[in-house]
From TrEMBL:
InterPro entries, per database record: DUF4232 (IPR025326)
Biased composition (Low complexity): 40-53, 64-80
Pfam families assigned to the protein according to its UniProt record, in alphabetical order: DUF4232
Native source species: Streptomyces lasiicapitis
Keyword Cytoplasm found: no
Domain DUF4232: 115-222
Keyword field contains RNA-binding: no
Keywords, sorted A to Z: Signal
Signal peptide (residue range): 1-26
Name listed for the protein in its UniProt record: DUF4232 domain-containing protein
Sequence segments annotated as region (Disordered): 28-92
């Protein structure tokens, strides 16, 4: 069991500040984004397996840095250091022209989710982190957009992949025990790289707000913590099929 309250606060601060900055400028309509987080702290547990590490977000935990945290600073150091990405609010505003909705089903906020992260194709072309989110609750919920992710000790929320397929504005209902997938694409194109096995994950709703975050490690196919290296990175939409499943 490991906790990651400092990383959660940083994740919330980054998403909140990005959202506030965009709001002050009148907003735009990109699919990129991070989103803001709700009040409180967070904790998560993790366990390794051949499928990756599983992290169960604490039912009583909420992310620090509220919607009114106008002073929150998103100094984007490292891979996601201000790559021009917008926020989840932008993604929600555009959403491919569709508003996420699921009649009678609530949005997944992350507290009901367990996460696993599998490091694939280490040091090869196509290297990425496969994120699997499993609904561990007894009721269905829906996801939309893409996960809000920070890597290692950086405080910048990763942008949405510009090469992703459309569909981030749709609501994907996740039944109890059901799974959805997203990928963090890793790029190393200079000597100025970062290395870590840690990352933080939070759910974004269709408005771009972030739910409780979870800190975990990436694992290889043998269930061993796996360090990844990156200069820059981005993240894909949630999907019912595994991205890059080849």
């Amino acid at each position: 069991m490991r906790t990651s309250r400092i990383r959660t606060a940083a994740l919330a601060a980054a998403t909140a500040a990005l959202g506030l900055a965009l709001t002050a400028c009148g907003g735009s309509s990109d699919d990129n984004g991070g989103g803001k987080a709700s009040d409180g702290g967070r904790s998560a547990g993790s366990s390794g397996s051949a499928e990756g590490a599983t992290v169960n977000a604490d039912k009583g935990a909420t992310v620090g840095a509220g919607k009114d945290s106008a002073s929150a600073s998103a100094s984007a150091s490292g891979a996601s250091a201000g790559t021009g990405a917008g926020t989840g609010k932008e993604a929600a505003a555009k959403g491919n022209g569709a508003k996420a909705s699921a009649a009678g089903v609530r949005a997944c906020d992350g507290q009901e989710m367990s996460y696993s992260v599998l490091h694939r194709f280490a040091k090869q072309r196509g290297e990425h982190l496969l994120i699997t989110a499993t609904n561990a609750d007894t009721k269905p919920c829906y996801v939309t957009s893409y996960p809000s992710v920070m890597l290692g000790d950086t405080v910048g929320v990763l942008p949405h992949s510009g090469k992703d397929t459309p569909g981030g504005g749709k609501a994907l209902v996740v039944k109890p025990g059901g799974k959805v997938y997203a990928a963090v694409n890793l790029f190393s194109d200079s000597a100025r790289t970062h290395t870590s096995s840690d990352l933080s994950i939070a759910m974004l709703d269709h408005t771009g707000d972030a739910g409780p975050g979870a800190g975990t490690e990436a694992f290889d196919a043998k269930g061993v913590p796996s360090k990844f290296t990156w200069t820059s990175a981005d993240v894909t939409n949630w999907n019912t099929a595994k991205p890059y499943d080849y």
